[in-house]
Specification:
Helix content is 64%, strand content 0%. Helix 5 runs parallel beside helix 8, helix 7 crosses helix 8 and helix 9 runs antiparallel to helix 10. It is built from ten helices and no strands. 33% of the residues are buried.
Length: 235
């Protein structure tokens, strides 16, 4: 599976060199600002990213930046929207809206999330997860916006788990919503740990375990109640 790098995808997104005087030019300038801010924030966080840094990275002057974004909060809100769209385009849609059963879709999603490295380092985490850790205790508007992103992600995963349940892959009484939160929370936890350990192999294993840990009626090969497995108590 090819490695997916969010900032690199950001840098290659469609942005233009159009002039400021046309609607297309205004849209292109705004897009360049958002892309530059997204890459900086993904690398170093919101607090360490100034509007001057963003203007320089986007190749615009402060006047052009303020024309579109009156404050760093407004720019951060646009970056959150951008990251949500990026995750949907490159991760959620390919995994959950492609062909296959519900179980296969969840397995694809776990695989994609185990391959989310930084530009220069093996692991850097989900950008929405990183922002949630950084700003949720600092700004209520950004916290609410991020909470909405999480709910929409959980909803997408819940749909695939409902499909798996209807296909007989999960017990009939399985709570797809609760399982979606547990599954994706485990993946997010793996990313938080991977940011500190920079252990890409462990990230892949942990994301795989998040998939295998769901209550599949027919467990994945190698899972189950092996007494030698960690966390299994011997009678």
């Amino acid at each position: 599976m090819a490695t997916r790098t969010l900032p690199a995808k950001v840098a290659r997104s469609k942005g233009a060199r159009g002039g400021k005087g046309t609607r297309k030019g205004r849209g292109d300038t705004r897009g360049r600002i958002v892309l530059a801010a997204a890459e900086l924030i993904h690398r170093q966080g919101v607090n360490a990213t100034s509007l001057d840094m963003v203007a320089r990275a986007a190749g615009v002057n402060r006047g052009s930046l303020y024309y579109f974004f009156r404050s760093k909060k407004n720019l951060a809100r646009a970056v959150i929207d951008h990251f949500e769209g990026l995750l949907a385009t490159h991760y959620l849609k390919p995994a959950l809206e492609g062909e296959g059963g519900g179980r296969e879709k969840i397995e694809r999603l776990a695989g994609l999330y185990s391959q989310m490295p930084r530009l220069e380092a093996p692991c850097c985490g989900c950008p929405i997860g990183n922002l949630s850790l950084e700003v949720s205790g600092q700004d209520e508007e950004l916290r609410v916006q991020l909470a909405g992103v999480w709910e929409r992600i959980f909803g997408r995963i819940e749909g695939a788990l409902r499909q798996a349940r209807d296909e007989g892959e999960l017990p009939p009484g399985a709570d797809a919503g609760a399982l979606a939160r547990a599954f994706f929370s485990q993946i997010q936890g793996a990313h938080i740990i991977a940011r500190a350990t920079l252990d890409a192999a462990a990230l892949q294993r942990d994301c795989r375990r998040a998939f295998e840990g769901l209550p599949w009626i027919f467990p994945t090969a190698g899972t189950g109640t092996d007494e030698s497995a960690p966390g299994v108590r011997k009678e």
